[in-house]
Amino acid sequence: MTNSYQPVPDGPGHHAPFSVVEATVASAHAAMRDGRLTARQLASACLARISAYDQDGPALRSILQRNPQALEEAGRIDAVAGRNPTRPLAPLHGIPVLVKDNIECGGMETTAGAACLRGNLSADDAFVIRRLREAGAIVLAKTNLHELASGGETVSTLSGQTLNPYDLTRTPGGSSGGTGAGIAASFGLLGIGTDGVNSIRSPASANNLVGLRPTMGLVSRAGLVPCGLTQDTIGPITRTVADTALLLDVIAGHDPADPVTSQGAPHIPASYAASLDRDGLRGARIGVLRHFFGDQDVHRPVNAVMQAALATIAAQGAELIAIEDAISPDELLASTLVHHYEMERDLDAYLAGLPPGVPVRSMQDIIAAGSVHPSVAGTLTTAAALSEREGEYRERLQRQQALRQRLQDLMARHRLDALAFPHQRRLVAPVGETQAERNGVLASATGFPAIVIPAGFSAPDGNAPQGVPVGLEFFGLPFTEPVLIRLAYAAEQALRARRPPHSTPALE
Description:
Blueprint: H1 25-33, H2 39-53, E1 63-66, H3 70-83, E2 96-100, H4 127-134, E3 138-143, E4 155-156, E5 160-161, H5 177-184, E6 190-195, H6 201-206, E7 210-213, E8 233-238, H7 241-251, H8 261-264, E9 285-289, H9 300-315, E10 319-323, H10 329-335, H11 339-351, H12 363-369, H13 374-386, H14 390-413, E11 418-422, H15 441-446, E12 450-457, E13 469-475, H16 481-495
Parallel strand pairs: 2-3, 2-6, 9-10, 9-11
Antiparallel strand pairs: 1-3, 4-5, 6-8, 7-8, 7-12, 11-13, 12-13
Pfam family, one: Amidase
Domain Amidase: 43-483
GO molecular function: hydrolase activity
């Protein structure tokens, strides 16, 4: 089969119509090659689903704004491809992407869900967005988030509460929950989120998705509304490990505007997609962190899914090593994170460069405006006070370094390829409650990589006819994304746990 573009014929074809539900980059490109699909048709199908289900139907409220130029951009992509039918498709040719609205996309507002950032019209693309467009992707829409990326429930003043498509009484995780809910509901094929503590992996876990937090320095943060740049990163949220690898191939790279990416550039392989190996678990040594599981009744649904998932992984040839090291995620959350100590400094640096029409120029301006969501107001006040505590901040940075060394020693001692645990010890929080017992701190406090994949579902109930999704997290050493992708892909293929939500079925 060639990788060239075949124009869609005028008359009826011999192939089945293309369905955007659960579509992947590979399936979309196959349909384009055999003449069943254009970029414009693909974008239109996703936009139709947004119209049907985001404000109507289950009213997920995952989308903050649509790109008004999306169909025009898709048409241009089709026109260029039609003039060059033998030219191979670009890596993300015509692929609609949902982008969290704390990342700048040229010609669209970047609000981070905050009313006080209305008017922040981005003149240029962030580095990752430029990479996406160069690879042929279309920014279809920008997604809701927990306002200013400062919480785990995905609620903002501009879009309200985003709902979990598997259980409309629950949150979609956070803070990238708009991207998570939208990708789960097939509003786009690929998603971009950001992660300061749990914020890519939490929505992946809660929405039966794949979410990768890359090693610090692998992906540029230029053009990001920051929370604290020691921990902030950008990464993929997708329905499959293969699409995560394809997306990482595009967005990883050195960016002079984010000097930390000079550390990652030497470690980028020719292709992350080359690590997709169905037999990738055979001979792998995976440490299972006992203290990252709960032991109370509330933990039983997650533990049951994880027990079955780990048994499947072992059956694929992986050796599971029980790790009794008393690493406590709750203690790490309380003692190692630094984003609130950095928030005022890093946010002020971003706000100072905003267009004249934006009414805020500092975090103190945001506090004074009094317009942020109540769940964020206290965070801002706390961050303002912590910015003065230089001694505590330095101690936490030292604890992060100690944790890096501790984990490297642990993995070397046991000769581990990765650590494994549930991303969240209990099911994702209902609307109105805060997230509890999430385990993403290992990666956020160290800057090491981690990937979440669908592990399965809790038992169905009246609110969740399919059950509530549970995510399994693999954690690795710096720049071992190829290893994590290999393990995650093999586990994904064995588990086959991905299911589309019943609340957003295929349209007529």
